Structures are given as structure tokens and as C-alpha cells.
């Protein structure tokens, strides 16, 4: 709204609103595929990684969840993540480095943490938070480009006041959005730790 006032283009408000909603919808349905593609993850079945698959299967039964898709990423760094928009479309991915480093109980602890993200719907929450943070960053970037590369500047409502407010918002909004994302993420990580410990009944793992 402030950007549309600052540029004296009321149509920008409608454009930004439609863009944000469209981006969020696409991100909601496509975020899993994009994440897996960027990570270079490959799907595995029971015969490909029996210990990993069995651990995921046992924990999903204990958690009362549907079996997620299991992926492995060829990367020596130990890491794992869960993604998807809901438990019915969930994915759990682990790196080859994690499988090489962890013993069975440690692997179950990591998987329980990731499956807790699925059960607590963190995967949906964080997917939308990431999408909306990206929308804020994109809109701010678009505004800055309109200001500096938009050609002849038009008369703005409220003089330079709205322009100044909009520039400040364009600079600060992505930073504030990122802080919100990090704060939400940290709280959900602690919850997944607690839920994972309850799921395995083995907090040390």
C-alpha cells in the first residue's frame, strides 16, 4: 500500500497482492520439488537403504504418521531435513555423510526430530514462512528498481513523505521478515527436539 502511494500508482497495490498470493500458492505446492532438486536428493526404497528405511518406517508407526518418501543426498556433510506441505505429502531426506557418521540410536534420534517436524506441521509452517519472506524481499527489490530505474518520476501523493517511508520499508522489511523466520524456526526446532525425545523414549540419542 505504501509502495503504491509512494509511486503514485494505485494499481501497484492490486498487482503486489495478486503476485504475493500467486507466489504463495505456487510455493506451497512446489516447494518440496524445488528443495529436493536443489539438494540433489535421490529417492530410495527399502532395498536401497534397508536400515534407514526401517528406522523411518518404525518411527512413523510409533508416531501414527503415514510413511513419508525417503531420500538420500550424496554429501559428506552430516545433515537431514523434512519437507512437504502435510504428513500425506512428507519427505525425509538425509545425507550420505549422516548415514556414515551416526550409529543406529543417533540416526533414530535425528529421524525422530525430522518426523516431529512432520507431525507438528512445521514443514507446512516453515514452507509458508520462507515463501512469504521471499515475497517481502522480492517486493522490496521491485520497489527499489522502480525508484531508481523507472525512468521519469511522477508526482507522488504526500510529497516525499511516502517515498521516504517506502524506501525505509524496502530496506528494513526483508531484514525484519528474516528475523521473524529465524525466530519461528528456532522455536519449532526446540519443539521438534522435545517431540523427538518423546517419540524415541531415548533423549540421549
- Biggest sheet overview: 4 strands, mixed
Question: How are strands sequenced across the largest beta sheet?
Answer: 1-2-4-3
Number of strand elements? 4
Whole-number average pLDDT? Answer: 85
Describe this structure in words.
Strand 3 (80-83) and strand 4 form a beta hairpin. The protein is built from 7 helices and 4 strands, in the order ααβαβββαααα. Helix 3 (50-63) packs across helix 5 and helix 6 runs antiparallel to helix 7. A 4-stranded mixed beta sheet has the order 1-2-4-3, sandwiched between helices. With 205 residues, it is α+β, with helices and mostly antiparallel strands. It has helices spanning 2-6, 11-39, 50-63, 96-101, 104-119, 122-149, 161-200; strands at 41-44, 69-73, 80-83, 91-95.
Chart the SSEs and their pairings.
Layout: H1 2-6, H2 11-39, E1 41-44, H3 50-63, E2 69-73, E3 80-83, E4 91-95, H4 96-101, H5 104-119, H6 122-149, H7 161-200
Parallel strand pairs: 2-4
Antiparallel strand pairs: 1-2, 3-4
Helix pairs in contact: 2-6, 3-5, 5-7, 6-7
Which short descriptors sum up this protein?
single chain; about 200 residues; alpha+beta; four-stranded mixed β-sheet; about 65% helix
Amino acid at each position: 500500500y505504501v509502495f503504491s502511494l509512494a509511486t503514485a500508482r494505485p494499481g501497484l497495490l492490486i498487482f503486489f497482492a495478486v503476485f504475493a498470493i500467486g507466489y504463495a500458492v505456487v510455493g506451497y505446492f512446489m516447494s518440496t520439488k524445488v528443495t529436493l532438486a536443489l539438494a540433489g536428493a535421490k529417492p530410495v526404497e527399502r532395498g536401497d537403504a534397508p536400515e534407514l528405511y526401517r528406522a523411518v518406517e518404525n518411527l512413523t508407526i510409533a508416531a501414527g504418521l503415514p510413511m513419508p518418501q525417503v531420500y538420500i543426498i550424496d554429501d559428506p556433510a552430516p545433515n537431514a531435513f523434512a519437507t512437504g506441505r502435510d504428513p500425506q505429502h512428507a519427505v525425509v531426506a538425509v545425507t550420505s555423510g549422516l548415514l556414515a557418521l551416526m550409529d543406529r540410536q543417533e540416526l533414530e534420534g535425528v529421524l525422530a526430530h525430522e518426523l516431529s517436524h512432520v507431525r507438528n506441521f512445521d514443514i507446512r509452517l516453515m514452507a509458508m514462512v520462507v515463501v512469504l519472506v521471499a515475497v517481502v524481499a522480492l517486493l522490496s527489490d521491485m520497489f527499489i528498481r522502480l525508484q531508481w530505474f523507472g525512468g521519469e518520476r511522477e508526482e507522488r501523493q504526500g510529497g516525499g513523505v511516502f517515498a521516504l517511508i517506502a524506501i525505509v520499508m524496502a530496506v528494513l522489511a526483508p531484514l525484519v521478515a528474516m528475523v521473524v523466520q529465524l525466530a519461528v524456526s528456532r522455536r519449532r526446532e526446540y519443539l521438534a527436539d522435545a517431540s523427538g525425545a518423546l517419540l524415541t523414549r531415548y533423549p540421549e540419542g
